[in-house]
Every structure is written in C-alpha cells, then in structure tokens.
Prior knowledge:
By secondary structure, the protein is mainly β. It contains two helices and 67 strands. The strands form 16 sheets. Strands 6-36-35-8-33-10 form a six-stranded mixed beta sheet, with no helix packed on it. It has a six-stranded mixed beta sheet with strand order 63-48-65-66-46-67, with no helix packed on it.
Amino acid sequence: MKAKRILLSALIVGVFVFTNFSSAVGMGVANQLSLASTDAIPSNHIEESVEKDIEITLQEDPETGELIVEPGILERTIFLGDDDETGTITIHNPRNEVAEYAITILNRDFVPYAENTPEISSDHLIHDVSKDPSNLLAGFSSGIKNIENENQKFALASKQLENMNLQNCPSLYTVNRTGGVFFTPNACNPSDSEFLWNTNLLLKTTDILFDDYQTLYLGSELYDDESNFQSYNLYELDTITGELTHVKALEGIPHTSGVGAFSFTAAYGFFYVIALDNNHEAKLYKMSKFGDISFIGPITGDHATVLSIGLLYVPKEDMLYSIGQGPGDSTNIYSINPDTAESKLEWNCDFQRQFVMSLDYDEETETAYASHILRITTTELREINLKTGRSERLGYYPRGNFVSVAVKAYGGVGGGGVPWIQFDQSHGEIEAQSSLTTNVHFSARGIDQPGTYYAEIKMYTGVDYEFVRIPVKFNVVRPYNWGTIKGTVYGLERCDVNPAEISNATVQIIKDEEVLAEFPTDANGSFSYSLIEGVYDLKINAEDFVEEGIQELLVGKSEDINLDITLRDCSSCLNFDPDYSSVGIIPLGPDLILNEKLKVVNSGACDAIVEIEEKNGAESRNYELAIDDGTYENLIGMVDGGEIIWANEFTIDPSWVPFTLESVQISWGTLVRPEDRITIAVYKIGEGGPREPAQFLGKQDGKITKIDSGFVDYVFREPITFMEATDIFIAVVNRDGVVGKRDYPAALDMSTPELILEKSWIGYEFAPIADEPQVPPSGFWEIIENISADPFNRFWGNWLIRGKGSTHEGDIAWLTVDPTAAVVPADGGELELDLIFDPNGLETGSYHGRLMINDWPYPRITYPVEMNILPFEALYLPLILRNFQ
C-alpha cells in the first residue's frame, strides 16, 4: 500500500461540495472534489468564483483488482421536452494489467410524476463535461486502448455483412457438427443458407459478440487419435477472410459424451457457458473472449439434470434461458438466474425434442431461434416465443446436422434497451493503472410521461471479478403548463356490492374523438397520466365490466386531478316487485278463471335473458351430493403440469327421483391460476363399474375463481335430470393445464373422520382432452389413494367436488304463464308476467307450485304460487289478496 500527496488548484463556479470518495467508489481516498450540476443550484444563489488549493491523499490498492466507477450513483433531472444533457463517468483500473469493461443498462422501474419530485443529492451528480476536472486522481494516466465507439460501424466488406437483416426474419450464422460455417440471409428461409468456410473442427456452439458481424466465436471438442476427449476449445473465425484463430483450450469445463453437452451464449462483453458433467449435472460459467473461465455455480432447481443443452441471454430481463429434454422426452424451456444459477421450468414447447437443440435471441423481435436436429441429416430452424413457449417451424437447413445458430442480438445500448441513457463508449479496454472518462447522455425526447425512471448499470469487468452495479435515477419534471390525471378504478360485484380495485383496467384519454393515450391500471387499480392543459374525455373499461366515461374533464396548468371511478359488473340482478306478489283465491265453478300479474325487475348493469319454468308442489326437496368435509389438506396436479381429469363418484338415491342436478360446487386451493378455463362433466356409471366406459350426460364450462375462499357455485345452463336411481361421476378438467406450466388444481380432503374411500378418481390422456371428455380417459385412470407406491404415504381422501339439485313433480297443470322467456333490460328494466289460474276439473282446497326464473349463469330465483279453490257459499270472500307472503 502506498500513498501520494497531490496539490490541486481548481476554479469552482457556483458551488463546491466535498464528498467522501471512499464511500462512493470503495477505495481509501480522502476528500474528493465534486462539482454540482447547475440544475441543482437554487435560483437565488449568487454565483461567485473561488480559487482554492485542495489537498488530496490517494491510496492505491491494486491487489483488489476491482474497477472503480465514479460517481457511484447516477442521477439527473430534466424538464420534459428540454434539451438532452450530457455528463461523464470515469472508470479507474487499479490493476497491473489491461482490464476489459462492458456496460449493460437494465430497466428497473418507473414512478409517475409527483409534486414532491426527489431532490438530487450533490454527491450523486454526474459531472458536466464542460466543468469536469481532468486527471483528478493522480496516479491514473489517461491511457486508453482499443476503445470501440458504438456509433461507428465498420465498413461492409462482404455479401453476408451487407445483407445482415435486423427485421422480423433476421440474418444468422449456423455451424454444423463437422465444422462447416453457413450464412442464412433470411431466417424465414433457412434452406437458402450459403456455405462460407470449413473449419475442420468438431463444432458444438457459436455466437457473435457485440455488433461485430464479421467475427464468429466457435466452441469445439478436441479428441486424440484414440477418440479420447482432450478439451473444449475457443476459436475466432473471420467470416470474410476465413482466417481461423485458436484462442484457448477451455480449462475446467466438464465433459460428457453426447451432442449438446456444452454451449455458450454472448452477453455484453463476455459469454455465459453451460455444460454437463459425467453425472449429467448442469454447471454455469462466465467466459471472456480470451477463453478465461470462472465458475458461477452448479445449476439448481428444475434444470439441474436436463439433457441436450441450448443457451441464450435476454438483456432486458438480465436472464438466461435454456432448452432441453424434460421428463417423457418433452422439450422444455427453463429460465436461469445468471448470478445464482438457480433455474425454473417456464414452458413446455409444442414439439418433441429429437436430438440437439441450440438457441439464440433477437432483441428487436424478442424472439428465440432454435436449431433442432431431427435426424442425422435433417435439421429444422424454429422460432420460439419465450413468453408463451409456442413455436413455429421456419424451414429446413440444407442436408447436414446443424448444431448451433448465432443471430445478431439487436437492441439498445449494452443490450439493455433503456432509451433515455446512452454511453459514447460502452465497452472496451483500459490500460493498467489508467482511467477512462466517457460521456453519458440523458434524453427525455423519447419520453412522453414525467416521473422518475430507474435503471441499473451492470458492468462486466472480467470473468474473475464481480459485476459493478450502479443505480441510475432519471427525474423527468412535468412542465408548468401540464397537469396530471390520477385515479383509482374500482369494480363492483354482481348486484352492485363489494367494491374492489381492478388491476389491468384500460384507461383511454380522448380529445376531439381521437385517442391520445391508452394504458392499464396497476396492481392496486391506480393510474396516473400527465398531459398539457386542456379539456379531455376519459373512457375506462375492464373485462366483464360496463364501460364508464367522463366527459369534458378540464385539466389546468400544474393541476393534479384525483378521480375515483367505479365500474359495474356486467351482469343482471333480478328481484320480484313486492307490490305484485299475489295468490289466487278461486270459487268453485267450471268457468271461473283468475288472471294475476307478476313483475320481475332487473337492477343489474346488463340485460337478463330469462326463462320461466314451472314446478308443481309447495316446495322442492333439495339434495346435496358431498363426500368431503369442506376443507382440503392437499393439492394434486401433474409433476410437470398438464391437463388432468379428476372426479367424484356419487349415488342418486331412489327416494330423490326424479332428481335434477342444477349446479356443481368446487373448492380451489392456492396453487392454481385465476381465470384458467375448466370443464365440469357429468356421467352415468354403467353396470361394469367405474373402470368401464361411462355415459356422458352433459357439461358446463367455467373459470377458476375465488382462490382459497370456499366453494365456487357453477350453475348448469342445462340442468341434468335423472329419472331413476344410479351411480354418477362429476368430473373436472383443467383446460389451461399444459406441460411446463405447473399447477395443482385438484383439492383433496384427507381429514374427514370417516372417509368414503374408493370414490375419488384421477386420470389423464396422452393427447389433449376432448371437448366431451371420455371417462375413463385412455392414458390413465385410478382411485386417488392407489396412485402412491408407498402404502404409508398414500393420498387417502376425497376431492372437494359437490353437486346440488332438487326433485319436483313436473309442470303446474292449473297455471299458465306468459311469456315463458324474455329479455329484461338493465338498470331497472321490468318484465310483467301474466299468471292465469284455472281451477276447472279440480276439487276445493289449496294447490301449490313454484315459478323458477332462470337467468344463467346466475342462481335461479323462486316465486311461490298458490291457488285456493273455495265452495260457492264462500263467494263473499275477496278474490285477490295482495302482498301475500
């Protein structure tokens, strides 16, 4: 350790601030001069010129080897629409050797504009270029080596470079196993690939670094004359001249036999490497362009033992993705955290892996491209959407096994895609004991909303060193003549009850019938949007809700408008008008008919489509099918996700018939996805029992709702009537279950004191389950307690699936209702029913029945009707009693 004493003379204009440099950059340095931007100087500050002698003690510790970036936090404030501003950062290299660096910018967050915009702390400011004191840290020379300016593009020197396509079908390079290098001008037509060079190497992987289309980095295997593996090797290939340069034998990377056990992908300035050892355990590394290797860690989680590796890096997410073989030869996509090597299964692809897969990523289209060997001489190129796992075959390569694909990763500075910050020199090399100062440009020109934007610099400084991470904060101030519309969107449940915030509601701001802006609400139902003063209209809508509008909203200068907006559920809400409740009292006689009125009112936000059904008898006998206690102790699903069918077996008692199954109740646990589609199906079990084909009777489609909140009632649009006692299945299918998308939809009760065993079944198909599911399914069908091989750890229990229904004696012979179907308008719409009581042919006495108002998918409402037939001597009684209860 050594110290130097330096005497600096500095002219400071406006304000000067002393900060502790050691806290900012991690070195033992005494007070460091920092100049505040003029943006931070109060308007009433009197400028003065002060000449000061400042003594700085610099302590150097080249043994640490870490690059030092000053300042340690970047922050800038600009008014929306103002000119761009430029500052600098300085990177110091205390090492005794040349240091690489590469800057990636990662987008982190955005907070809408608020009046209390955070003040800028002076020790976090970027220095203005015009005021930046040069060589402030003595002992660091200004020597800079091989600095690459991103704004300078190399000369296009060949056909493939001239034709590099950065649009929807990008250009790419591909290599085959036997050393051939090919250029594909258009990824949508890989059959037109052009042969470039034969390297005579056993190639495994390839990629492009930065925007250097001319240089391919190749990874190969080397074997001795007796076919014994020697090493993986890194090469550089000049695609113009064909010059092949051996960079280095890659030490420390494990080897296992089989194609696809080693792959690398370019990040910004270096490579990530994935490889399998002899136990087929995956490991993750960093690799420099010089072939230096550092171990990140063993890959943990879902990808730990995946075969046939392909790897890509997505800069916007700072995430690795790999493709490989999962259980049952499925083709799965995994995410891998590049810092921790922790992996997670994301998707199952919609094709089955055959042999090796390789991956690369195009930032412009946010699309992955995979080279997939089908047979020894046949390779296809597939386009894969990483957000859904869906893929499409683009075509076939010429004859041969193409093991790796490299596509230009086109995007923002450093691959991060943050548009408001740019660096003049985002990657390069710095000589030993030297410094580099580079311009940093902040721009609000591409930004339409004031607020605070957050990003992070992730700087690569060599494979043996940790990334340098620097937070970035960009305050974009609202202009004086702008205002802000803020609000929270609430949604009401059916019948206008229980308001709750709505996330992802759509807000539109309109002026002169033109939509100026459209954006969603956040997770709390809130939104904020700033715009120039004026008069605007708003439209707010959300799925299953009625659109709401605000007309001629005046936004003033520097004004904040706060709104609470409530959307009504688009559903009906039916009730009977109590003034129309009635009972018919009829004197005995052949020609006496009584005509009554009954009014139904819809107070809901949307129309009701109703059907009126008659049921004879004073009251229905309601029955419930249930073999659980109402709580679950376990949740069951496929290990790798996918469609399943699970069912409870019930018995319709002879005393119930005729019995109508009107609804099914299901309880959902916490490990399902809200709004996923389901199908509920009902079957009659045949004489052969539950393992033999069952008769499909009907179904009802629905969605998963009310997670972990008791039972959800699914009303059948077409109830199912049983005219005899029988055994039935009530089954459920999770329609959005796919392999690679785990869920556990089947809730199992395991605590009922007296379990009714061998009544709960589960199964699956080898193909998508049909619209009318088959029971038993062809793939698998078994009682839930039998699926565990461990007799001491079985799933003893029953599904939380129930059924409800009623029994009745048919239509009411003495009552005619008109109409029997109608549309009841929303918001107070009325339906008046004519009820005609006809006593002809009946004895004196009381007759009872019920009118069922069906308004699917909502529970039906019931209205009791009664006819009392009196003898002639009782004619003095009033014929109609109103408000009868």
